[in-house]
Design a protein that fits this description.
The chain has a 16-stranded antiparallel β-barrel with strand order 10-11-12-13-14-15-16-17-18-22-23-24-25-26-27-28. The protein has 734 residues and is an alpha+beta fold. The two termini are 31 Å apart. Among the domains are: 2-147, membrane protein fhac (Ubiquitin-like (UB roll)), CATH 3.10.20; 154-245, Ubiquitin-like (UB roll), CATH 3.10.20; 253-325, membrane protein fhac (Ubiquitin-like (UB roll), Roll). Strand 5 and strand 6 form a beta hairpin. The protein is globular.
Length: 734
């Protein structure tokens, strides 16, 4: 294990050392005389070590450049590569680099004022804020020393509420949920939060025109020293009105509800009425209004959903739902292509058709055709793959009425696909179907659950030499046999920004799981047994396994001028066969390499482990039971809609089970050889971004290839045979 980790450290050290060498230029060289780079801001509270200092950082008027690690941002150094001539070179490094933040003294004074005001808002009265500067090699370090002021605990509370009607009783019923009580410290912050909370509660139970400006506060800090007596009045007029404009605070009810949409839009009104939760005669509720908005938006049939509320009487409101039609059907095209120094080409086109209202009830139809073609020019060797799939999604959960779901209604979907693979070693047919549900919570947490997944795999025309190679390795043989999969699976996905092209920093997490064969195993006693002892259905062994894959990612986006971004991703996957199976089905194996993975390699050409290329396959097809991969990519604008990228990829796939094959130990995951088995590449990319379409070209160069006798690839070998790969794709790799 120790030796393996040392090798991994060597890989990391190599990459970091190369980066440091590239960005060794000073980060302040371009500063003018008298200018200083703002290197750091630090806030220290002198009289309370537990105070949340980070909460004050957003009130600083000038922030230093973003640092990635060890207070280092290499792109600041890149900016300083300028020669001062203002030519194309200077323009280029300005775009790929990050301009250092120039210190401004006026911003420090503004920051002091902001922090002081914030502390008073938090209930620290009479706080002192001082700024101390430290100069070092044209860098300024600003240290804000904060002495917190006096706080006043609430001794007593006096609450005044308008009498008459139902408001007083409804409000008092919620007072146990108030955010403050006697003994808590007085602050404008907590008072503001309570008015927002209380207003939301009252709006939810019918009080349409009630808002936070109906609250009036008065604090007495003189009657009893070092304490506060808080008076809280709820009045029948707001802070923007006079007592003459007061009106009773009443509960409101819905009167008329109308749904408007373009006449050209063919949709059954019954569907819209069932999704609408606003009913005439019901008590007004913001929750009901928001639920209607969420439900109708989830149909994805409308470019905009507007739910407007209009007061028409002393306690009546009308609800007007206005729907604007979006594009209901169209085509999507995706294309990936790659080649490497061996002359192997790969092309993967995909054409999809979608319709969001196929049966006039918000049903989604998706039809897709895909291909995957690998070949060499002037060579008869070919690998062809064709696939067709169809999916139908309904805006409901089984036969349950919409009333059981408050917000977006889960969708029920049925999928069917057929895949044909013709390789030099074999021909394979795969028929798949699934039934399940998908939906989201608050548009950040997305889920797909499939209680039924079925795959039927049949192999034909197996090459004799390939068949003989499988006889030597039972695990290999069991992965390439006819099989029948019946199980369940699903995907859970969380993101802080669900937009297709986020404009600010975000992170995400995705978990995929598949389990097969457990239900069928309960009927083993009724099944026939093949020569290997496996239970069969329709004269075909069924598979039994569990498979999971976790993806974590974060993308930092900064510098709106040149749109700099740093994207990171980590992938970990593992599969395990048990019971009726001794190996994972081949289609459930993990692989690495390709336009969205290790870009120094083509798809399915990395690993497993340190094993050499498997000669059983004429066209490489390297897979494993386990996958680990990490990716880092820096993105920056070059000019117009052209963007550049620099990236590093590292990872591999491994097998878990030992076999009699010659390279079994090399392909297995072992801590002792972990570092040695990590493949690594770096590369450069070019993107053409039209917002609605992004075309991508990547050149990946191998740095560490575990399959080679000399794993480290010297720079003079990067552009030679088996040293690089070129990829074309649509969209970002991750």
């Amino acid at each position: 294990m120790f030796i393996g980790m040392k090798r991994l450290i060597r890989i990391i050290f190599f990459i970091v050392a190369a980066s440091i060498a590239a960005y060794s230029c000073s980060s302040t060289r371009v500063l003018k005389d008298g200018e200083y780079m703002l290197a750091d801001n630090k806030i220290t509270v002198t009289n309370d070590k537990e105070f949340d200092v980070e909460g004050l950082e957003s009130y600083l008027r000038q922030l230093p450049n973003y640092y990635f690690i060890f207070r280092w941002n290499p792109f600041i150094n890149v900016f300083n590569w300028q020669n001062g001539k203002g030519g194309p070179w200077d323009k280029f490094v300005k775009r790929i680099g990050v301009e250092p933040v120039v210190y401004e003294s006026a911003k420090v004074e503004e920051s002091i004022e902001n922090i002081s005001n914030r502390l008073e808002y938090l209930g620290y009265y009479g706080s002192k804020v001082e700024a101390n500067l430290k100069l070092k090699k044209k860098r300024v370090f600003v240290h804000y020393d904060v002495t917190l002021g006096k706080r006043f605990p609430i001794k007593d509370m006096i609450l005044t509420i308008p009498e008459g009607g139902t408001f007083a009783s409804d409000y008092l019923a919620d007072t146990s949920s108030m955010l403050f009580k006697p003994g808590d410290y007085l602050s404008e912050d907590i008072l503001e939060k309570e008015t927002v909370r209380s207003t939301a509660v009252m709006n939810r139970i019918g009080y349409y025109d009630f808002n936070k400006h109906h609250f009036f506060f008065e604090a007495d800090t003189l009657s009893i020293p070092d304490t506060a007596i808080l008076k809280m009045d709820i009045r029948e007029y707001t802070r923007n009105e006079t007592p003459d404009e007061s009106t009773p605070i009443r509960k409101f009810f819905f009167k008329d509800v109308t749904i408007s949409y373009p006449t050209t839009m063919q949709i059954r009104e019954k569907v819209l009425r069932e999704l609408n939760t606003v009913k005439p005669g019901d008590v007004y509720s913001t929750e009901t209004v928001n639920n209607t908005y969420a439900r109708l938006s989830a149909l994805r049939m409308f470019s905009s959903v507007n739910v407007g509320i209009t007061q028409v009487d002393t306690n009546l409101v009308n609800c007007n739902i206005n729907l604007s039609q979006s594009k209901l059907q169209g085509f999507k095209v995706n294309l990936e292509a790659s080649t490497n120094s061996t002359g192997l080409f790969g092309i993967s086109p995909q054409l999809s058709y979608y319709h969001k209202n196929i049966f006039r009830g918000g049903e989604w139809l998706n039809l897709s055709f895909m291909g995957n073609f690998q070949f060499k020019f002037n060579d008869d060797i070919r690998s062809n793959e064709f696939g067709i799939s169809g999916g139908l999604s309904f805006p409901r959960f089984l036969l349950l009425p919409y009333k059981y779901f408050k917000q977006a209604v889960p969708r029920t979907e049925v999928n069917l696909s057929y895949n044909y693979q013709n390789r030099p070693e074999y021909t394979r047919n795969i028929i798949s179907t699934s039934y399940g549900y998908n939906g989201n919570v608050h548009n950040k947490f997305f889920y797909q659950v499939y209680p039924l997944q079925l795959n039927i795999v049949k192999l034909f025309d197996m090459d004799e030499n390939f068949y003989k190679s499988m006889e030597k390795d039972p695990f290999f043989r069991n992965a390439y046999q006819n099989h029948f999969d019946l199980g369940l699976g699903g995907t859970l996905y969380y993101t802080t920004n669900p937009e297709a092209t986020p404009k600010s920093t975000y992170h995400y997490a995705r978990l995929q799981m598949d389990v097969a064969g457990n239900l069928l195993s309960a009927f083993n006693g009724l099944m026939n047994v093949d020569e290997n002892g496996a239970r069969m259905i329709w004269n075909t062994p069924y598979s039994q396994f569990v498979r999971g894959e976790l993806t974590l990612g974060k993308t930092w986006i900064w510098d709106n001028k040149y749109k700099h971004a740093l994207a990171t991703r980590f992938v970990a996957g593992i599969g395990y066969a048990y019971g009726n199976s001794s190996a994972l089905p081949f289609e459930k194996h993990f692989y690495a390499g390709g336009s969205n993975s290790m870009r120094g390699w083509q798809a399915r050409t990395v690993g497993p482990g340190t094993a050499p290329m498997d000669n059983s396959f004429i066209i490489p097809n390297q897979t494993g039971d386990m996958r680990l991969e990490a990716n880092v990519e820096y993105r920056f604008n070059l000019f117009w809609n052209f963007y550049g990228a620099a990236f590093i990829d590292a990872g591999n796939v491994w097998t878990l089970a030992h076999s009699d094959a010659e390279d079994s130990q090399q392909s297995q995951f072992r801590w002792s050889t972990f570092g040695k088995s990590i493949a690594a590449n770096w590369g450069l990319g070019l993107r053409l971004d039209f917002d609605f379409l992004l075309l991508r070209l990547d050149l990946g160069l191998k740095v560490h290839d575990p399959a080679r006798e000399q794993a480290w690839v010297a720079p003079d070998q990067w552009l030679k045979r088996n040293g690089y790969a070129i990829h074309f794709g649509v969209g970002y790799p991750f």
